[in-house]
Automatic annotation (TrEMBL):
Protein name, entry field: Cell division protein FtsB
Provenance organism: Marinobacterium alkalitolerans
Domain of life: Bacteria
UniProt keyword terms in alphabetical order: Cell cycle, Cell division, Cell inner membrane, Cell membrane, Coiled coil, Membrane, Transmembrane, Transmembrane helix
Periplasmic side: 23-96
Pfam families xref list: DivIC
Protein family (similarity comment): Belongs to the FtsB family.
Record text on subunit structure and interactions: Part of a complex composed of FtsB, FtsL and FtsQ.
The protein's role, per its UniProt record: Essential cell division protein. May link together the upstream cell division proteins, which are predominantly cytoplasmic, with the downstream cell division proteins, which are predominantly periplasmic.
Lineage, broadest ranks: Bacteria, Pseudomonadati, Pseudomonadota, Gammaproteobacteria, Oceanospirillales
Topology versus the membrane: Single-pass type II membrane protein
Chief site of localization: membrane
Xref: InterPro entries: Cell_div_FtsB (IPR023081), FtsL/DivIC (IPR007060)
Biological processes, Gene Ontology terms: cell division
Leader sequence residues: none
Amino acid sequence: MYRWLLLILLVMLAGLQYRLWFGEANLRQVWQLEEKILEQRQVNQQLTERNKRLEAEVNNLKKGLRALEERARSEMGMVRKGETFYQLIEPESENN
């Protein structure tokens, strides 16, 4: 009787081992998927860093153009097309 029980348990163990190593979603596939997940995370990290650099560049260009325009207006007296430029001149003092 114990031999039959032992034999049944061994057959069940072999069946479970077969399923673990060769069946659907076996260990080899799980390991491959884990490797792919790690690779994808690295790619995602690189893309996130690239996006941050691009966002900083866009913000710099937006703010940089405003700063450049402001400087051109104040220091060089430049105006946009369709604008009218008024310059106020203070009178010279008589002490000169």
